[in-house]
């Protein structure tokens, strides 16, 4: 019942903010320990990510990737399935994009983008389908199978890029030919030059696709019957059986949706930015998607905000390694890990004291009638306090 | 009652003064005073959430009281943890036993109370004590038996032995008869009387009025965190106790006219269910339920009743024939799921509403469509019609007196009785031909029990067939028009409520048939 004493603003804003502040504080200590100035590092981190149109261009590009992977993981979370195969599913999504764009002469980028999205989602979903099938029918644990499929995907991509799809005479770099000029996606520079994005910005129209995906997932999960069934199954499998909801079907469908959403990331990374398929188009976004889904509590709005945060960390972190001598990529990973640790795993450390604070300050407006914990997503459940 | 200043009375085994305990804004115990006389059996009754368990947890050192004092044997005693409670001579038998399943009885009794580093002397001492106790109180348990091989009644005896081995003078038992057959319960009561006559003090926490009347010397009633009354059992009646518990007059008997059974609605022949471990749970069930009739299935939990409900409800696989309104129901294949069963007119109030009947994190309005979420009235186009669900929920809450009547409240925030009313409203208002209902009043307050029973009888009077599964014999006796007793996956006997009694049903539940049961 303790989860009802906190007003909603504290739940969705105050607690994450304190978590983030703590994570940055500890990161500052780490930075100080390796002999750098933490305040300077923070300045570069923030300024490099959101301090200029240039920074925003990269931040939002990464955000787009993380929205897709985060949404994918979130949909699976709602069915209590832990899809950690995002890396492989996104890589296969890239393959789907490449096949669609390399072998069909598309007249215009709009149709090409639609076709590439279908290809990306189809390949991503197909890669998730095998672990989903094994889980649904054989009970093979999806955490194990999806992560194994990451390795298989990686090997498959190396084989395809170095043997099959390799462009002749590319100089040994395992990548496909460049996509046709006609399928080039408009970049932020081309769409809105007055916003000051640089010519080289990777941010492109896929960002809008990501926002559309957020709306799609919100409608799917909270407005459709399928979403109702997915959430019910995620909360309680015995109850789902009682209600006539087939566990096999829900496991398959939610994993296909999850893989498909994750695959869509390739539209941004492969079609939008690289404009060819390279050896590792995912760059860890599949794993970041897990953190994004956790931090965003599997809600599209939360996923969007968390993706933005991680996008900024990615971009700002990149600047940090570039600007400060001796700041390696590993430090960035440490900072990201601390953010995940404080916002995800140690959430209750901050939440409980704040809840108690609210409980004591608003004690005794009469009866202890329980009030609604209006939490839309709430899937990865918070710890419950004693009665 | 007792003012804080009065001198302690050495005749009291336990005296509590002004005990208060809050959890956040909830005051679980408010200024509780309790006097338990030495050498008596003292019942503590109250509805769910009245604060009984909190009070006993304070006494056993699990919680620390916010205020108040505890006197044991006339001495002020601090009980910061359960070891202190044991040292003070208090033993506790929990509802869910705390035994090591793969240890022997002897090892469990000694566990945590070993003397010295070597086990042998402790075991020898315990063996001797066990033998003596077996003679004194009919507490026959084989000291060398492994716990998992014992029945629940015997496991409970091991719990009592553990407390006695730790030289407990005061024994607290929390809902001890919940898992016992009537015969086992009688045996337990004989043991408890024997212990009382030896001078032990026994506190019995229960919600069963019949047991309180049968075995206790004194009863204390709790309501909403307060101790509302303490009376001598001989001077009171079940009706008065129920009224004290609920705060208003309660009808303990179910008012129902004789059944007027119509045509057979459900016919089951040779129904068998084998679980995933390959154990046969239903070993050939035959039964028939008519329109306008309640068939009560009695039995100790775990004798196949759950599987019977599941296979009829469409989510366990079985073999045999089930005919509903003269039409055969598929037992295998894709059409054999709960959704198809609902479409055929079978509604189901499951035994465990929190595990199956409700999604605890779903709000009430989301739960009223659960299982019926394919209904056209709850859908508009590709989306669910949440407004229709909300309106339906509000209407159901009004008709079934669900409190608080707030469709936006999550299921987990309702009390057990109100959760059950939500499930009941959903299933009954579908106007099914057959209602399966398991443990309709488990964990439900007395006030709500009355209401739920009325609803079940009303549905019967509309000419519906009802299959009632309950482990509460009182409930079976009160509601059923016919009683089938299940034992070990079979229906071992069928009786009319007017021609049987608890004793006979109890023997059947223990697997004794034929002349022995007559």
Task: Give an overview in words.
The complex is a heterodimer of chains A (387) and B (518). Helices cover 70% and strands 0% of the residues of chain A. Chain A has helices at 8-33, 38-50, 53-78, 86-103, 109-138, 142-164, 188-191, 206-223, 225-235, 237-242, 247-263, 265-274, 285-295, 300-323, 329-345, 347-361. The radius of gyration of chain A is 22 Å and the shape is globular. Residues 364-387 of chain A have low confidence and may be disordered. Chain B is α/β, with parallel strands linked by helices and 518 residues long. Chain B has 2 domains: 12-246, Rossmann fold (3-Layer(aba) Sandwich); 264-358 and 431-517, 3-Layer(aba) Sandwich (Rossmann fold), CATH 3.40.50. Chain B is built from 17 helices and 22 strands. Chain B has helices at residues 52-59, 82-87, 105-110, 119-137, 152-165, 182-197, 209-215, 238-246, 305-313, 338-344, 353-357, 364-367, 386-399, 416-428, 446-461, 473-479, 502-509, and strands at 12-23, 26-37, 41-46, 67-72, 75-77, 90-93, 170-174, 201-206, 218-223, 226-232, 264-274, 280-290, 293-298, 318-324, 327-328, 346-349, 379-380, 383-384, 434-438, 465-469, 482-487, 490-495. In chain B, strand 9 and strand 10 (226-232) form a beta hairpin. The mean pLDDT of chain B is 89. The A-B interface holds A 1-2, 4-5, 219, 223-225, 228-229, 231-232, 235-236, 238-239, 241-246, 356, 359, 363-364, 368-370, 372-374, 378, 381, 385-387 and B 23-28, 313-315, 337-342, 348, 350, 352, 355-363, 366, 369-371, 373-374, 379, 382-384, 386, 404, 406, 408-410, 413.
- Class computed from helices, strands and strand pairing of chain A: mainly alpha
The mean pLDDT of chain B is 89
Counting structural domains of chain A, the number is 2
Secondary structure category of chain B:
alpha/beta
CATH architecture of the largest domain in chain B: 3-Layer(aba) Sandwich
Can you give the helix content of chain B as a percent range? Answer: 25-40%
What do we call the CATH homologous superfamily of the largest domain in chain B?
A: P-loop containing nucleotide triphosphate hydrolases
Number of separate strands of chain B: 22
Membrane topology (chain B): Peripheral membrane protein
Keywords (chain B): ATP-binding, Cell membrane, Hydrolase, Membrane, Nucleotide-binding, Repeat, Sugar transport, Translocase, Transport
Domain ABC transporter (chain B): 14-249, 266-513
Pfam families (chain B): ABC_tran (PF00005)
């Amino acid at each position: 019942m303790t989860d009802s004493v906190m007003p909603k603003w504290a739940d969705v804003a105050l607690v994450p903010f304190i978590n983030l502040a703590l994570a940055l504080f500890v990161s500052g200590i780490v930075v100080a320990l390796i002999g750098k100035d933490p305040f300077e590092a923070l300045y570069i981190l923030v300024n490099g990510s959101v301090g200029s149109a240039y920074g925003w261009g990269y931040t939002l590009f990464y955000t787009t990737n993380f929205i897709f992977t985060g949404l994918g993981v979130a949909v699976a979370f709602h069915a209590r399935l832990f899809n950690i195969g995002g890396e492989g599913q996104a890589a296969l999504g890239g393959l789907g994009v490449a096949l669609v764009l390399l072998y069909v002469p598309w007249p215009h980028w709009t149709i090409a983008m639609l076709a590439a999205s279908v290809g990306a989602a189809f390949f991503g979903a197909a890669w998730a389908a095998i672990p989903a099938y094994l889980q649904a029918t054989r009970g093979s644990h999806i955490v194990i199978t999806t992560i194994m499929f990451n390795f298989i995907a990686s090997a498959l991509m190396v084989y395809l890029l170095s043997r099959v799809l390799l462009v002749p005479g590319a100089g040994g770099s395992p990548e496909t030919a460049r996509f046709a000029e006609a399928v080039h996606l408009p970049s932020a520079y081309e769409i809105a030059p007055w916003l000051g994005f640089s010519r080289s910005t990777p941010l492109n129209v896929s960002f809008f696709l990501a926002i559309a995906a957020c709306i799609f997932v919100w409608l799917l999960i909270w407005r459709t019957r399928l979403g109702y069934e997915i959430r019910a199954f995620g909360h309680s499998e015995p109850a789902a059986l009682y209600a006539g909801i087939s566990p096999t079907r829900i496991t398959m469908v939610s994993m296909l949706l999850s893989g498909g959403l994750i695959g869509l990331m390739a539209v941004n990374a492969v079609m939008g930015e690289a404009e060819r398929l390279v050896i590792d188009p995912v760059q860890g976004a599949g794993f970041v998607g897990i953190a994004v889904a956790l931090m965003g509590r599997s809600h599209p709005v939360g996923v969007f905000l968390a993706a933005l945060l991680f996008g900024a960390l990615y971009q700002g972190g990149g600047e940090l390694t570039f600007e400060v001598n001796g700041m390696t990529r590993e430090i960035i990973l440490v900072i990201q890990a601390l953010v995940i640790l404080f916002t995800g795993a140690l959430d209750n450390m901050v939440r409980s004291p704040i809840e108690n604070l609210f409980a004591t300050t608003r004690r005794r407006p009469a009866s202890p009638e329980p009030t609604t914990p209006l939490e839309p997503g709430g899937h990865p459940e918070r710890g419950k306090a004693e009665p | 009652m007792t003012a804080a200043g009065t001198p302690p009375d050495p005749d009291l085994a336990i005296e509590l003064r002004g005990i208060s305990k809050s959890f956040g804004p909830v005051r679980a115990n408010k200024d509780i005073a309790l006097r338990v006389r030495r050498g008596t059996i003292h019942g503590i009754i109250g509805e769910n959430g009245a604060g009984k368990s909190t009070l006993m947890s304070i006494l056993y050192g699990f919680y620390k009281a916010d205020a108040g004092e505890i006197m044991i044997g006339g001495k002020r005693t601090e009980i910061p943890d359960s070891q202190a409670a044991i040292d003070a001579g208090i033993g506790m038998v929990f509802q869910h036993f705390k035994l090591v399943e793969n240890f022997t009885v002897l090892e469990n009794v000694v566990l945590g109370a070993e003397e010295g580093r070597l086990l042998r002397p402790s075991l020898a001492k315990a063996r001797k004590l066990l033998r003596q106790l077996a003679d004194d109180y009919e507490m026959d348990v084989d000291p060398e038996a492994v716990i998992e091989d014992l029945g629940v009644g015997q496991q409970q005896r091991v719990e009592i032995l553990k407390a006695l081995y730790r030289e407990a003078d005061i024994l607290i038992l929390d809902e001890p008869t919940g898992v016992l057959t009537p015969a086992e319960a009688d045996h337990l009561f004989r043991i408890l009387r024997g212990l009382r006559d030896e001078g032990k003090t026994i506190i019995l926490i229960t919600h069963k009025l019949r047991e309180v009347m049968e075995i206790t010397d004194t009863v204390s009633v709790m309501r909403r965190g307060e101790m509302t009354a303490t009376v001598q059992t001989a001077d009171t009646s079940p009706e008065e106790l129920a009224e004290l518990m609920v705060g208003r007059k309660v009808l303990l008997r179910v008012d129902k006219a004789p059944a007027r059974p119509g045509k057979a609605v459900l016919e089951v022949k040779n129904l068998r269910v084998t679980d995933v471990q390959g154990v046969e749970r239903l070993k050939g069930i035959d039964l028939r339920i008519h329109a306008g009739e309640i068939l009560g299935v009695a039995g100790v939990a775990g004798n196949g009743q759950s599987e019977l409900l599941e296979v009829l409800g469409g989510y366990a696989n079985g073999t045999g024939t089930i005919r509903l309104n003269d039409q055969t129901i598929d037992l295998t294949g894709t059409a054999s799921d709960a959704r198809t069963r609902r479409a055929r007119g079978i509604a189901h109030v499951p035994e465990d509403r929190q595990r199956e009947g409700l999604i605890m994190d779903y709000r009430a309005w989301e739960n009223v469509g659960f299982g019926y979420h394919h209904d056209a009235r709850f859908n508009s186009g590709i989306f669910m019609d949440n407004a229709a669900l909300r309106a339906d929920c509000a209407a159901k809450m009004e008709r079934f007196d669900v409190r608080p009547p707030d469709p936006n409240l999550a299921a987990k925030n309702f009390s057990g009785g109100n959760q059950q009313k939500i499930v009941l409203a959903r299933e009954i208002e579908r106007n099914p031909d057959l209602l399966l209902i398991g443990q309709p009043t488990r964990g439900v307050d007395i006030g709500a029990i009355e209401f739920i029973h009325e609803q079940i009888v009303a549905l019967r009077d509309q000419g519906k067939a009802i299959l009632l599964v309950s482990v509460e014999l009182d409930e079976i006796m009160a509601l059923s028009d016919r009683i089938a007793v299940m034992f070990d996956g079979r229906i071992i006997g069928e009786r009319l409520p007017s021609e049987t009694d608890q004793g006979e049903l109890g023997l059947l539940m223990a697997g004794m048939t034929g002349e022995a049961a007559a």
